[in-house]
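Q: What would this chain look like folded?
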Amino acid sequence: MAFGWRCTGVAWPGDAPQLGWSKGAERRVSVLAYGAGLGFRAVGERHCVGARGNVCPLGAVVSVRSTGARCPECARLDRAHSVAADTLLDDPRTYRVYLAWFGPGMVKVGITREERGAARLREQGAVAFTWLGRGPLMAARRTEEVLRAALGVPDRIPYARKRAVRGRLPAEQERSAEVVELYGRAAALQGRGWPESLEPLPLDVVDHAEIFGMGRSAAATRSVSELVDGGVVAGRLVAAAGPDLHLAVGGDADADGDGDADGGGSGGGVVVLDTRLITGWELAAVDPAAANDIRVPLIDIGGGGVQGGLF
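A: My prediction, written as structure tokens:
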């Protein structure tokens, strides 16, 4: 089955988000810049993205609201080789344990390969974080579980919750204070559950609000709930966090936070596009300057009210 260009999602190898694209064996990357236009039109149906670099043998059609864009068989194959599924117990690489902050009272402990640096934190949309320790995979995994239980933090935080607080974050000093307090509680557990093979790392709070563009635009009030055949998403990129792109839309889109935004079928303002929803779709280019609008179903952020139909 032949397809045109398909988005493979957002990556954060550095301080700027990148959109990946595939077309058969071809691959390319688009580095995104705040203030630049971004636009596309969805074509046809959404198909499974495959697993581990392999094309889905069935070319299966998948749900438009799935954030994984995989059919059941490819999803099983992908998870069978996942660190999160504890199927790579003999992985010889070094891992790091981190403490990530997404909003007031929204903290998680996790692990990532040391060679990836902080890319995993940016991909999750962590506004602030600090490293806790480094060592073999199973030592990192054990420490992760111990700290989750001791600190009372979850293993994951839904993106809907992250979006709901992103437009009203406290000042950097307050963000850092919560991370520092939890780091202190975690460090106090050394020798009481931390494996000896995990090397503790010093406190060093890193804040991502600046590279995410937070505070430079109006708060987003709606998000894309799904794409549809022929649906257009076009606007000006004003912020990004993890897989989420914040697009100013409408005839007089507000990218400077002055509260004035109107015009366009979407009603103007700032809309969040979760790029996990666009994987598996064939996307055709549109000129965002000529079509500064979003014409796909939207949902209110934090409010739960779906605005039905195309906008």
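The CA atoms of residues 3 and 282 lie 7 Å apart.
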